[in-house]
Amino acid sequence: MTNKMQLKKDLKEKRELVNITLDRFLPRKDEYPKEVHKAIRHSLFAGGKRLRPFLCIRTFSLFNDNIEKVRNIAAAIELLHTYTLIHDDLPDIDDDEYRRGRKACHVLYGNDIALLAGDALLVSAFELLSHAPVDDALKQQMIKEMAIECGDRGLIAGQMMDILCEKKEINERTLNFIHKNKTGKLINMAIRFGCLTAGATNADIKRMNEYGTRIGLAFQIVDDILDIEGDQATVGKTIGKDAKVKKATYPSIYGVDRSREMAKKLIDEATALLSHYGEKAEILLMLTDYMLTRQF
Amino acid sequence: MTNKMQLKKDLKEKRELVNITLDRFLPRKDEYPKEVHKAIRHSLFAGGKRLRPFLCIRTFSLFNDNIEKVRNIAAAIELLHTYTLIHDDLPDIDDDEYRRGRKACHVLYGNDIALLAGDALLVSAFELLSHAPVDDALKQQMIKEMAIECGDRGLIAGQMMDILCEKKEINERTLNFIHKNKTGKLINMAIRFGCLTAGATNADIKRMNEYGTRIGLAFQIVDDILDIEGDQATVGKTIGKDAKVKKATYPSIYGVDRSREMAKKLIDEATALLSHYGEKAEILLMLTDYMLTRQF
Predict the structure, then answer these.
(1) Do B93 and A113 lie within an 8 Å CB cutoff?
(2) d(Cα B250, Cα B245) in Å, to the nearest integer?
(3) ipTM for the assembly
(4) Scanning A135, B115, B119, B230, which has the fewest C-beta atoms within 10 Å of its C-beta?
(5) How many CB pairs under 8 A join A and B?
(6) What is the mean pLDDT of residues B216-227?
(7) Which residues of B touch A159 (CB under 8 A)?
(8) In chain B, what are the domain boundaries?
(9) Interface with chain B: mutation pick from A115, A168, A176, highest number of B CBs within 10 Å
(10) Which residues of B touch A40 (CB under 8 A)?
(11) Which residues of chain A neighbour B39 with C-beta distances below 8 Å?
């Protein structure tokens, strides 16, 4: 099997594990009041890559084989990610009509229901994390970290600056702040929670945090490039939007070629960090490589 | 001192305790990115009655004298309450311009920032609860309950039905569903968390839950009556709004007189439940009485 096929197979397997976890946890779409549950399921089961849960599970399995322990935690992070997508797509924020190749939640269900569906996903992440089969002290630690990382000194600070900086010239420092918080927080949380749940050492947690920071930034840079050069049907969301709203992105500051070089350097560093784990990191290495070459 | 003066003094004292707790916990309004922190503080320190934290603290003190133990928990519930107000007031939902006698968050800061400020308050409630000085198992239990009660089978289900039923004829059962979830969940949570933190017995928890259900419903009925008969400056929010949007309310289904009788009966029952606690419940008794006669 080629690397690409092996990665694809593993991504599919973990995606199914996450989807089953989410499907069992969430209310049925015909549960009263069904509009909110339909809206939640529309956005959650819209063919997302489940990249964050995958990173969580694959990091976990560097240190521990019992994947059952981490599945709720991985799925909780996907709930958070989907909440940010629904709220970001609302007309009050990015006003985006497409997401994951389908109509955005608010386009189908209305702004009011989409807003509440996002709120519901946010609280349900805390509920699902509460069901994780880990001891109370660790669970407590992760809940506190989740709240801090998602809050107004974390993810929301990133979203806020992203909004405030639209149509403005911004410097490299502000751009880094936005992406470190808006995209980076959940990616690093996924990796950190994988480590914590598996019982990794502090040295491993630190190393994997370095890894997460690098792939998170590379992921964002490639995202920005795809918004310029990608194909809408493949990428699954509106293309050319950043330039249209004059959003500051890596290519807009550094140009496409330089941005691609930056992403390449980050991926090389991430790869070097994984070398510490030998064969155990095989799949993560393939994913890291794919981050650079992905078309969606 | 008259009952009214004594209640007023105690409300003020507990309100200050909650305000200090919130003020210390939240980022300063000039912290980067300051727009979101200013928006949060605008809505949070807008002169709210702090009814839910008060119920939490006063229920706690039926069973336990060490109020320090409960202050973070009481304040966390106010964060949740304020998040619901900010999101409810958005043009996508109720489109209300006034709240607590001041301009609504979105009117001053824009819909995008108000939306994110609401999200931030929601996650910060989980963070603040995580700081409560109780053992991990109890904290874990409260976090799980908070997520469930606020989620799409609780508070959000109530908000959802409230939206879906606007301009529609609805029956008593639906009206009760809306208020049990939309208003009732946080009031009952405040009382229950007060009991749990104080180490109350199951019998006490059950009794106080009965109490909470009654005052929660009475509170809503009086709210509906005030929307018809109240004075805007005193009530602090837009008056006559329910009738304008043809919202189903207790007075619209039962008429004002019958609604007032219902509220009276609920308050009588709530008073009877408190009699179990003798002098310890003195202040709660005054509050219960005030629920019926309040003008705002």
Answers:
(1) no
(2) 15
(3) 0.94
(4) A135
(5) 145
(6) 93
(7) 116
(8) 3-293
(9) A115
(10) 152
(11) none
Structure tokens, A248: 């500051």
Nearest CA in chain B to A131: B144
Cβ contact, residue pair B33, A112, below 8 Å: no
Gyration radius of chain A's alpha carbons: 18
The CATH topology of domain B3-293 is Farnesyl Diphosphate Synthase (1.10.600)
SS (H, E, C) chain B: CCHHHHHHHHHHHHHHHHHHHHHHHCCCCCCCCHHHHHHHHHHHCCCCCCHHHHHHHHHHHHHCCCHHHCHHHHHHHHHHHHHHHHHHHCCCCCCCCEECCEECHHHHHCHHHHHHHHHHHHHHHHHHHHCCCCCHHHHHHHHHHHHHHHCCCCHHHHHHHHHHCCCCCCCHHHHHHHHHHHCHHHHHHHHHHHHHHHCCCHHHHHHHHHHHHHHHHHHHHHHHHHHHHCCHHHHCCCCCHHHHCCCCCHHHHHCHHHHHHHHHHHHHHHHHHHHHHHHHHHHHHHHHHHHHHCCC
The pLDDT tens digits for B6-64 are: 999 999 999 999 999 999 999 998 999 999 999 999 999 988 889 999 999 999 999 99
Q: Chain B, 131-170: which have a CB under 8 Å from a chain A CB?
A: 131, 136-137, 139-140, 143-144, 146-148, 150-153, 156-157, 159-161, 163-164
pTM value is: 0.95
Closest-CA residue of chain B to A130 = B144
pLDDT, position A222: 94
Structure tokens of A211?
């890894």
Query: Is CATH 2.40.50.100 the right assignment for the domain spanning A3-289?
Result: no
Residue B201's pLDDT is what?
98
Q: What is the nearest CA distance from A43 to chain B, expressed in angstroms? A: 15
Lowest mean pLDDT among A66-80, B94-108, B267-281: B94-108
For B29, which residue in chain A has the nearest alpha carbon? Answer: A152
